Amino acid sequence: MEDRSISQAVIGRLPRYYRYLGDLRSEGVERISSQELSGIMNVTASQIRQDFNNFGGFGQQGYGYNVNTLYQEIGRILGLDKIHTMVLIGAGNLGQALVNYVSLKNRGFIFKAAFDTDPKRTGRMIADVPVYPLERLPEFIDANNIEIAVLAVPRGAAADVKDILVHTGIKAIWNFAHVDLEVPEDIQVENVHLHDSLMKLSYNIRCHDEEEVKSGKR
Amino acid sequence: MEDRSISQAVIGRLPRYYRYLGDLRSEGVERISSQELSGIMNVTASQIRQDFNNFGGFGQQGYGYNVNTLYQEIGRILGLDKIHTMVLIGAGNLGQALVNYVSLKNRGFIFKAAFDTDPKRTGRMIADVPVYPLERLPEFIDANNIEIAVLAVPRGAAADVKDILVHTGIKAIWNFAHVDLEVPEDIQVENVHLHDSLMKLSYNIRCHDEEEVKSGKR
Q1: B119: how many CB neighbours lie within 10 A of its CB?
Q2: What is the pLDDT of residues B100-130, one digit of tens each?
């Protein structure tokens, strides 16, 4: 199994395969061909085979794939066979929602604590996660082997928090702050820029509106 | 200005340009060359020029770009010169956080109401946004010319809500439910799959860990 040089585009498609396979598994489906999967997922069968070939192909095409094996194997590739420890930084509305959301849905991702600079927020709990003052962050990360920092602070605060994080043993940042973070190569960053997503939607609305005007529908 | 056939990759980069230009503008920068912008944004100058050429180029390269004009123009392309009316569907933790987050940060995107099936949530307010029973959704969308439905319901409920939405005049769905929505062509969908994003992070952590083991760092 060789996944050293796999493109981020292929990686980006794995969670979707995982999701569909999880559904098929729950429905009791045991085997599925790339053609059948193609029909359900709205991707060409050749794309599916190409994607899977990056990971050794996952078994014979003629018989189809074993759904459960494929699900487990993609889960393993995605690192979902391990527990990932997390901290939240920024215990505002979005941060609180993320703690509740992740805790509810992802058994393998565990929030161990939250951190904030606002004394009105510290000392409280979000679900069963305690909120501590930001000063305690570095010590907590290293004492508890925290892997992932979830950054839900205002954009003005993001650079300062990043500077703290790079001096800890943190492995990854799930970044909701509306800035691009510059971090050393050994820290993985995944951005969720909600603003940017909303702007893309707004762009597509505008284009569609203009098309309708041009084609005389309005 | 011809933006009919512009790739989603280019569109996906526009919000980032808009963000950096907004910052430069706040700092009082009046003109910037593609080289300077390249240095700040960590994109090649040729990529920037190619992207901008899709929209007519935005002025002469020799003199650099006028920051304010470019900011306004990209904003217009992104449809940010108009007000976008929104409803939230699913007033749980994530939905509430989205109302607070968007209301705070995006002046052009206005939540007019939220909808839920849970009587414990309806009749309340999220910030200054009222929460109504889901039955009132179609009537509300059409009476208030709502453009965007923000879908923050559990995945099991998403298909039913989508079926309601496609019979209204809604233009777009900002989808946080962990399913792919099949909608008619004239409804724009932008997915924010938080799970998928977390899985990509987990994949990159695993690969980095394995690299370190291989290279003898651990």
Answers
A1: 8
A2: 988 766 679 999 999 999 999 999 999 999 9
Report DSSP state, residue B134: G
Q: Which of A15, A100, A203 sits opposite B195 (nearest CB)?
A: A15
The token duo for A73 is 């194997």
A74 touches chain B (CB under 8 A): no
Q: Which residues pair with B130 in a beta bridge?
A: B125
Q: State whether residue A213 sits within 8 Å of chain B by CB.
A: no
DSSP-derived secondary structure for A124-186: -EETTEEEEEGGGHHHHHHHTT--EEEE-S-HHHHHHHHHHHTTTT--EEEE-SSS-----TT
How far is residue B78's CA from residue B11's CA, in Å, rounded to a whole number?
A: 9
Using alpha carbons only, what angle is made at residue A74 by residues A71 and A76, rounded to the nearest 5 degrees? 105
| pLDDT higher than 60, residue B4 | no
Among B105, B208, B58, smallest CA distance to A179 is for B105
| A186 interaction partners in chain B (CB closer than 8 Å) | 208
Distance (Å, whole) CA A41 – CA A171:
32
How high is the ipTM of this complex? 0.90
* A chain contacts of residue B11, beta-carbon cutoff 8 Å: 200, 203-204
pLDDT at position A57 is 75
Evaluate if pTM is beyond 0.80: yes
Task: Give the pLDDT confidence score for residue B59 in this predicted structure.
Answer: 73
**With an 8 Å Cβ cutoff, are B201 and A148 in contact?**
yes
